[in-house]
Amino acid sequence: MFMGEYSHTMDAKGRVFIPARFREELGEKFIVTKGLDHCLFVFPQKEWKVIEEKIKALPFTNQDARAFVRLFFAGAAECEQDKQGRVLLPNHLREYAKLDKEVVIVGVGTRVEIWSQELWNNYCNGAQAAYEEIAEKMVDFLL
After folding, report:
1. pLDDT digit string (tens) for the chain, length 143 residues
2. H or E element, residue 137
3. Which UniProt keywords apply?
């Protein structure tokens, strides 16, 4: 399970270090795609297969389902770690997530998220203020 928050610097080539705690579970090759809230979602191959099966079950006759599937898969890229544990993020994904130099890599259970430091801070400030309210809404799912 992925958990924790790690700050890293992206180099000029668009490479970022994957935290050592995440490397083995992600595997040598993994999928990076557009996430929600302008972050990137990173899935190990086995988890990607699970997501892929669920998405394939969406009705293609539903306009929202078609839009989601198109954007989710069109933005996806298979990436791999180099020997130093870095991953080169494709330019279109860096642009989508507004990644510049300072990035935050967050473990979120079955996936990893990559955020720009600025967007992560903004997100946390807003979500932290509503944390208890969000928890109350989620209590049925948690228990």
Report:
1. 999 999 999 999 999 999 999 999 999 999 999 999 999 999 999 999 999 999 999 998 999 999 999 999 999 999 999 999 999 999 999 999 999 999 999 999 999 999 999 999 999 988 877 888 877 877 777 66
2. helix 131-142
3. Cytoplasm, DNA-binding, Repeat, Transcription, Transcription regulation
